[in-house]
């Protein structure tokens, strides 16, 4: 299939456009069935740059469920066995998506939350400032690149592993603010779409979106080296965005992605031996006596012992509790204490 094939049509009236099992990743932000076409008056925003022609979904639940079941069945058809799909939804018709996925036998891998920076102000109920992000696999083990954005040993500024924090199922990502640009009624931020694409596909894979809207999926996917297919029923949106996407060179943004160094320690998970404890004690005290910082010592030990940051920290804490480590250059552990624990060197 072409590297870029987006049709100005309804995904349910022209399904043959996408062959069976040809898509690696689907990203779907369907109309919520809540009258989004009139959202401007709620947000009190300037609608001058909002693209007209927004197509609503059925607002009555049964009709919405039946419509959802049809398009999700098509999504299931086009996914490869290792493929996956994300569905971004509000709470109003969430159960329609959950029920449709269950009927189709899709595997729910995660039910994540996207927390954004503002919602519609309300007086008699809580302000909605999140959407649901449903992550499904056609099979139980779809493509997932755990270390595509952060390495296994990268530490966050406030502590903890960066990859762990990025993998938490609450995505705190602000909405894009692009005043003066033509946009559809609702636009997902580039950062949210890129996160999904990076984790759940590889360069050269096919990414599909049945509801292109602002073409965010197309822009982001093409920019980081993915092929794109899908539909946009709104001719006005299609005519604005399709030429721009077509002119964007595939992979133009790959060089801007972080260079992730994923050093997985060779001895990760192995038991700590007495010999290793003695080696760590000797090296730590030798470097500390020379005035080397504890942070640098920890990095030296990680490289030498081929263990992760947290494993080294736990070992150092254990040795410190036993009184074996120099806390500064003026103190030294008693030799007989070392010998009593490890024996003669």
Quick recap of the structure?
By secondary structure, the protein is α/β, with parallel strands linked by helices. It has helices at residues 39-43, 61-78, 94-104, 162-167, 190-200, 216-223, 235-247, 274-289, 294-305, 309-321, 335-342, and strands at 4-7, 23-28, 79-89, 107-115, 130-137, 170-172, 206-209, 227-231.
Features:
345 residues; alpha/beta; Rossmann fold; eight-stranded mixed sheet; disordered C terminus
How would you characterize the overall build of this protein?
This protein has eleven helices and eight strands. It is an alpha/beta fold. It has two domains: 4-256, Vaccinia Virus protein VP39 (Rossmann fold), CATH 3.40.50; 274-342. An eight-stranded mixed beta sheet has the order 1-8-7-2-3-5-4-6, sandwiched between helices. Residues 39-45 and 329-345 have low confidence and may be disordered.
Taking Cα atoms only, what radius of gyration do you get, to the nearest Å?
Answer: 26 Å
Largest pleated sheet:
8 strands, mixed
- Biggest sheet, strands in spatial order? 1-8-7-2-3-5-4-6
Second rung of CATH, namely the architecture of the largest domain: 3-Layer(aba) Sandwich
What's the number of helices? 11
Distance between the termini: 66 Å
Order of helices and strands: EEHHEHEEHEHEHEHHHHH
Using the alpha-carbon principal axes, give the shape: elongated
CATH topology of the largest domain: Rossmann fold
Helix content: 25-40%
| DSSP summary, beta strand count | 8
Class from helix and strand fractions: alpha/beta
Content of β-strand: 5-15%
Task: Kindly report the oligomeric state of this protein.
Answer: single chain
Name the CATH homologous superfamily of the largest domain: Vaccinia Virus protein VP39
Which regions are unreliable across 5 or more consecutive residues at pLDDT < 50? 39-45, 329-345
Q: At the first level of CATH, what is the class of the largest domain?
A: Alpha Beta
Average pLDDT score: 86
């Amino acid at each position: 299939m072409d590297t870029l094939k987006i049709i100005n049509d309804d995904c349910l009236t022209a399904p043959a456009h996408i062959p069976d099992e040809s898509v690696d990743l689907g990203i779907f932000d369907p109309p919520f069935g809540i009258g989004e076409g009139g959202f401007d008056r709620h947000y009190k925003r300037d609608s001058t740059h909002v693209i007209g022609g927004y197509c609503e979904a059925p607002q009555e639940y049964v009709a919405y469920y039946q419509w959802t079941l049809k398009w999700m069945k098509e999504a299931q058809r086009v996914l490869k066995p290792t493929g996956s799909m994300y569905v971004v939804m509000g709470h109003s018709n969430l159960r329609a998506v959950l029920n449709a996925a269950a009927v189709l036998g899709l595997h729910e891998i995660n039910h994540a939350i996207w927390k954004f920076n503002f919602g519609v102000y309300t007086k008699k109920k809580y302000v909605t400032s999140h959407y649901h992000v449903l992550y499904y696999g056609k099979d139980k083990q779809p493509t997932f690149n755990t270390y595509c954005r952060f390495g296994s040993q990268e530490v966050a500024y406030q502590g903890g592993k960066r990859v762990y924090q990025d993998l938490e199922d609450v995505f705190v990502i602000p909405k894009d603010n692009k005043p003066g640009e033509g946009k559809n009624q609702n636009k997902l931020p580039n950062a949210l779409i890129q996160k999904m694409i990076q984790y759940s596909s590889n360069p050269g894979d096919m990414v599909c979106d049945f509801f292109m809207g602002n073409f965010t999926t197309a822009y982001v996917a093409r920019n980081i080296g993915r092929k794109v297919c899908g539909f946009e029923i709104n001719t006005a949106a299609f005519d604005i965005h399709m030429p721009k996407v077509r002119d964007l060179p595939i992979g133009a943004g790959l060089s801007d992605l972080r260079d992730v160094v994923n050093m997985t320690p060779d001895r990760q998970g192995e038991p700590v031996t007495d010999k290793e404890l003695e080696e760590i004690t000797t090296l730590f005290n030798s470097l500390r006596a020379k005035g080397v910082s504890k942070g640098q010592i920890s990095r030296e030990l990680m490289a030498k012992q081929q263990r992760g940051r947290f494993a080294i920290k736990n070992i150092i804490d254990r040795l410190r509790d036993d009184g074996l480590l120099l806390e500064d250059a003026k103190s030294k552990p008693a030799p007989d204490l070392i010998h009593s624990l490890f024996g003669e060197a």
